[in-house]
Design a protein that fits this description.
- The protein is an alpha+beta fold.
- It folds into two domains: 114 residues, Arc Repressor Mutant, subunit A (Orthogonal Bundle); 138 residues, Immunoglobulin-like (Sandwich), CATH 2.60.40.
- Helix content is 31%, strand content 23%.
- It contains seven helices and nine strands; from the N terminus they run E-H-H-H-H-H-H-H-E-E-E-E-E-E-E-E.
- Helix 1 packs across helix 2 and helix 2 crosses helix 3.
- It is globular and about 45 Å long.
- The relative contact order is 0.17.
Length: 272
């Protein structure tokens, strides 16, 4: 069994430092359509450039540049869903000078080109990108994942996946969707995880409540960093879902519409 490391969390820093990073994140969300430099972000946080870069990564799990890129793709997804603007216009609106660069990065991050993403959202619930097939050339090991919920949460649909990135993007090497009828811990097994060092992501959402399903935000998240998978021993990972925070990078993957679908079979029937 290989231990999984929890992501760096805000409690590792004092409240004042955490507030500094949140100011920089607010700056990213406000100015993502413009060129944003590391110096500009460190000044918005009132920290030295070196201290800011290190602290930002400690708290969010990613560099300021990767967080900015994730915000840009997240906003592009929103525009593709909620507006009729052309992909060229959207590319420029989220800070890209080249349509080709935008399309390539969007495809790598979301798992499909912008045009396909818009078409799927308009036509039906999003499809789940398949795992990266080339990573399964050699048989891997199984990952047993236990997922706990905040007290009082029920009726959640949970997506758990194993990814090469601390940002939930690109197709996973293994993934599963699980229904939770109550707030008891869930257990599932992700088979054939290739050897390597991975990031385990879990996200959850409640069922639709009558609002426009396209505007819902995923409510609960957790991540395990630097999960080392070998070829022999089974991997065991414990996840503890919590409400999303401002310091969490946006979710870029074209997840299925977790909220809109009804609950399916009991969890025990899907846990293998």
């Amino acid at each position: 069994m290989t231990a999984a490391r929890r992501r760096a969390v805000p409690e590792a820093h004092d409240g004042a430092t955490h507030a500094c990073i949140e100011r920089a994140i607010d700056h990213i969300w406000e100015r993502y359509s413009e060129p944003v430099s590391l110096d500009e972000l460190s000044k918005s946080a009132l920290l030295s450039r070196f201290h800011f870069a290190r602290t930002f990564r400690d708290i969010t799990g990613v560099t300021p540049g990767r967080f900015l890129s994730a915000v840009r793709i997240h906003q592009a997804k929103r525009m593709l869903i909620n507006t009729s603007r052309t992909i060229t216009d959207i590319s420029s609106a989220v800070g890209y000078q080249s349509l080709g660069s935008f399309t390539n990065y969007f495809t790598q991050s979301v798992g499909m080109p912008p045009s396909q993403f818009r078409h799927l959202v308009e036509g039906a619930a999003l499809n789940l990108p398949p795992p990266e097939r080339h990573l399964h050339a050699a048989r891997g090991t199984a990952a047993a994942v236990t997922i706990s919920f905040p007290r009082g949460c029920s009726g959640l649909r949970v997506y758990v996946g194993i990814f090469p990135s601390p940002i939930l993007q690109s197709p996973p090497v293994a993934a599963k969707i699980i229904d939770a009828a109550d707030d008891h811990p869930l257990r599932c097994v992700l088979p054939n995880v290739p050897p390597g060092t991975w990031f385990v992501h879990a996200v959850a959402a409640a069922r639709a409540t009558g609002l426009d399903r396209r505007t819902h935000q995923l409510l609960f998240v957790d991540r395990r960093d630097a999960v080392a998978v070998g070829t022999r021993a089974a991997l065991r990972v414990s996840m503890h879902l919590r409400p999303r925070e401002r310091t969490d990078p946006p979710i870029l993957l074209a997840l299925p519409d977790l909220r809109a679908l009804p609950l399916s079979r009991p969890v025990a029937d899907q846990a293998g």
